[in-house]
Amino acid sequence: MSPSDLEWKGYAVDDTEHWDQPKLIDFEPKRFEDYDVDVKIEYCGVCGSDVHTVTGGWGKPMLPVIPGHEITGRVVEVGPKVTEFKVGDRVGVGAQVCSCFECVPCKTDNENYCLKAVNTYNAKYPNGDIAQGGYSTAIRAHERYVFPIPNELPLEQASPMLCAGLTVYSPLVRNGAGPGKRVGIVGIGGLGHFAIQFAKALGAEVVVFSHSPDKDKDARELGASEFVHTAEGFVKGWEGKLDLIICTVDVSKGIPLEDLMSTLNVGGRLIMVALPDDNLPPMNSFQFSKNAALLGGSHIGSKKEALEMLDLAVKKGVKAYIELLPMKEAGKALRNVKENNVRYRHVLKMDI
Ligand SMILES: [Zn+2]
Ligand SMILES: [Zn+2]
């Protein structure tokens, strides 16, 4: 069973050397199953992951690859066992489209940590079907990986929240960001601009660390009470002052890791949410011992967290700073993200 009027076309990269020249191709979606939802795409955000994938920075991708995992649109078809959605619903799909549904993570609202998770693109389903992303006309996903979008939130606003927003919301919540806590956000970009807003929306005091002194104004507008330019010696006066740090910096050599660890209070945590291509800077274990600080990671978020995040975004007016481009300019958008030349997220508007 498959809807008759849906076209499956998308902008694919077929050569990592020419990663900024995606070409329009026809593709075969996964086989339609009982819990599947078909979504006609209206918008798709452009994530740093798209760049890491199409450039081969994270390893050779399965080519051709259609990137994009910040997808919003409308439901056009539902499988016979789908209960959450009906045709016409406004929905989104993030960075994951399937999992095993049976393991402990899947049964405890940690499905984003399922060892058999299927990513939205550059991935294969267990039956061999290829998952392609949202720089395309449509996406098919299991209903668990489809999120209802609140009516108050325009789809182009919701799109970047489904990866960038969730990637920072989940570790904020899991690591206790809230009233009485001081949270440091490192880097102001696609992830960072959401991290500042969600930390503030959760009730925490927010300190922004950035190597660009000209981002002071944006940091404060987004909700930071302090802005720290991470130039030589910035750590002076900040030792032991923070409960939690979310690091969104995507290039390892740009992360002053030892100094940032020093800004944590006893047992404070630094959570890496960006995934740079290269290794993190080396650290001496003395760095961890002096304040018992912890260094950790995080991977997107669960559906439960996605729904809470969208609700909080509506209640507290969290706003994505977006620059819209037609989908045919996906290559330009990818290049701008790679060159850090967007304030702060590109969203592609369907034009196929
Ligand atoms: Zn992403
Ligand atoms: Zn699982």
Primary descriptors:
globular; Quinone Oxidoreductase, Chain A, domain 1; D-isomer_DH_CS1; binds zinc ion; 9 helices; six-stranded parallel β-sheet; Rossmann fold; about 350 residues; alpha/beta
Describe this structure in words.
The protein has helices spanning 48-54, 104-107, 155-174, 190-201, 216-222, 257-262, 286-289, 303-316, 330-338, and strands at residues 9-12, 23-26, 36-45, 71-78, 90-93, 96-98, 118-119, 123-124, 130-131, 138-142, 147-148, 182-186, 205-210, 226-229, 242-247, 264-272, 294-297, 322-326, 345-349. The chain is of the alpha/beta class and 352 residues long. It has two domains: 9-148 and 321-349, Alpha-Beta Complex (Quinone Oxidoreductase, Chain A, domain 1); 165-297, Rossmann fold, CATH 3.40.50. The strands form five sheets. Strands 3, 4, 5, 10, 11, 18 and 19 form a seven-stranded mixed sheet that branches. Strands 14-13-12-15-16-17 form a six-stranded parallel sheet. The mean pLDDT is 96. The site of one zinc ion has 8 residues, from helix 2.
CATH topology name of the largest domain: Quinone Oxidoreductase, Chain A, domain 1
SS-derived structural category? alpha/beta
- Topology, number of strands: 19
| Bound ligands | zinc ion
Count helical runs: 9
| Rough outline | globular
- Report the sheet with the most strands, covering strand number, pairing sense and barrel closure: 7 strands, mixed
The CATH homologous superfamily of the largest domain is called Medium-chain alcohol dehydrogenases, catalytic domain
Summarize the amount of helix as a percent range: 10-25%
Distance between the termini: 24 Å
Strand residue percentage:
25-35%
What are the low-pLDDT stretches, counting only 5+ consecutive residues below 50? Answer: none
The averaged pLDDT comes out at 96
Return the domain count.
Answer: 2
CATH class of the largest domain: Alpha Beta
